[in-house]
């Protein structure tokens, strides 16, 4: 048995058979009127069952590549009857930089000349209406982050997502995040925990030890005060207004949002309320060092030497590509138990797409999560690929890589999703609005509790 084939899953071997036959037909290596090898021969060549071979041949029939002639065989059709399949692929525009997505699409199309990918940029709010996008035929495949995925499920979009085979070569904690009721609904693509990035030159200048995994938030506050230089730089920046940042502090407290019997929040007098006060106090202590800033601004300020430390993600480290700042990374500070907020991005197929487009979309997903594309992400960006082998790749680097880049491997046990706070995506968005006001000193404890408990009972917007 061929060792390289035996390591592949049945789905991968089926895709390999369909892809090779399709490519040979498109390239003219199998001419019109020629018959393909028998099903038995194909089964032996690709180590498949006869049933799987027939399934693959049905795909080629649906694509117009071959014609089944009863009791004779499978005949290649004239080239004019074959056609290029175009699939519509929705994604966040930020992923263009975070994963070199357009280059990956070009690589996929070069390897699959019979498929064309039409990029469809989307916003976060789009995923709330994913059923309309899928039902209207506007998308065949889509990329969404974990929050988008939860929003999709909460909005009744689960039945629009094609169940996918679980890939054991991807990090299991990512596959688990994108599963529901035992079904793999998204295939993990890239991920990142939150981390601390810092300017090493600033630490050396002040004679301060660089951060390590023992750092608490109080350690960070004291160090930030020493690193700050009036009218020149701030010691620390943290975008506390971002829903992809502040859940970190709540998760580290190990508190969850409590609920009454009717499902509404109970906030007053709870451990979660104590945690919200603690975060408010931290923000007060950092009032001269940290303010709400636009997305990507902390990274730009670190690059310009205007900030000594920032909370960021491997995704956002891509803002530092081609910058000369001598930066390194460390785990985020904690309250005593190391934890970090996990951000993840996955890929889905429209269950309602036509068979031809659905198969092409599945082929795109397989390509983007396979070794070549995932290793490309690892080497060309700071984002972490979901394929374990690619994420842990060691070799000659093509760009500056901080010395502690691989620290994520040791911090995996501390990764937490925002849903572990006991909230859903819609509640995250609503809490984000209320907590901005509270942490800015524009709401009291009493008014915050009253407002959140009210809308969670359906009594407010």
From TrEMBL:
Example GO molecular function: DNA binding
Cited Gene3D superfamilies: Periplasmic binding protein-like II, Winged helix-like DNA-binding domain superfamily/Winged helix DNA-binding domain
CDD domains, A to Z: WHTH_GntR (cd07377)
Domain HTH gntR-type: 11-79
Sorted UniProt keywords: DNA-binding, Transcription, Transcription regulation
Origin: domain of life: Bacteria
SMART domains, alphabetized: HTH_GNTR
PROSITE patterns: HTH_GNTR
Protein name: GntR family transcriptional regulator
Taxonomic placement: Bacteria, Bacillati, Bacillota, Bacilli, Bacillales
């Amino acid at each position: 048995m061929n060792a390289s084939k035996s390591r592949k899953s049945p789905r991968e071997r089926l895709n390999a058979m369909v892809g090779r036959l399709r490519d040979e037909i498109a390239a003219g290596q199998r001419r019109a009127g020629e018959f393909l090898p028998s099903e038995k021969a194909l089964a032996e060549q690709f180590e498949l069952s006869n049933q799987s071979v027939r399934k693959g041949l049905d795909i080629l029939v649906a694509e117009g590549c071959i014609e089944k002639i009863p009791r004779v065989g499978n005949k290649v059709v004239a080239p004019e009857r074959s056609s290029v399949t175009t699939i519509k692929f929705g994604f966040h525009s930020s992923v263009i930089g975070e994963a070199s997505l357009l280059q990956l699409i070009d690589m996929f199309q070069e390897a699959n000349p019979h498929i064309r990918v039409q990029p469809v940029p989307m916003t976060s709010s789009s995923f709330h209406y994913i059923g309309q996008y899928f039902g209207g035929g506007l998308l065949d495949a889509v990329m969404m982050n974990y929050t988008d995925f939860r929003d999709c499920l909460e909005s009744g979009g689960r039945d629009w997502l094609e169940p996918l085979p679980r890939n054991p070569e991807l990090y299991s904690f990512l596959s688990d995040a994108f599963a529901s009721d035992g079904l793999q609904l998204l295939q993990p693509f890239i991920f990142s925990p939150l981390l601390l990035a810092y300017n090493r030159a600033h630490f050396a200048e002040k004679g301060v030890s660089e951060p390590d995994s023992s750092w608490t938030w109080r350690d960070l506050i004291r160090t930030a005060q020493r690193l700050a230089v009036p009218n020149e730089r701030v010691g620390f920046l943290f975008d506390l207004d971002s829903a992809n940042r502040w859940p970190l502090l709540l998760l580290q407290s190990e508190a969850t949002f409590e609920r009454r019997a009717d499902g509404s929040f109970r906030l007053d007098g709870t451990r979660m309320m104590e945690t919200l006060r603690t975060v408010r106090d931290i923000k007060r202590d950092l009032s001269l060092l940290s303010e709400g800033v636009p997305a990507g601004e902390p990274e730009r300020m670190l690059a310009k030497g205007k900030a000594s430390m920032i909370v960021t993600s491997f995704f956002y480290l891509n803002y530092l590509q081609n910058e000369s700042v001598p930066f390194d990374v460390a785990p985020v500070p904690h309250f005593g138990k190391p934890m970090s907020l996990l951000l993840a991005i996955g890929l889905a197929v429209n269950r309602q797409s036509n068979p031809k487009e659905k198969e092409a979309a599945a082929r795109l997903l397989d390509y983007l999560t396979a070794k070549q594309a995932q290793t490309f992400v690892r080497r060309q960006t700071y984002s972490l690929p979901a394929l374990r082998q690619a994420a842990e790749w060691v070799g000659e680097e093509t760009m500056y890589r901080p010395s502690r880049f691989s620290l994520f491997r040791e911090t995996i046990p501390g990764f937490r999703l925002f849903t572990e706070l006991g909230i859903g995506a819609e509640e995250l968005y609503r809490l984000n609005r209320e907590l901005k006001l509270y942490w800015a000193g524009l709401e009291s404890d009493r008014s915050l509790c009253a407002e959140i408990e009210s809308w969670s009972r359906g009594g407010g917007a």
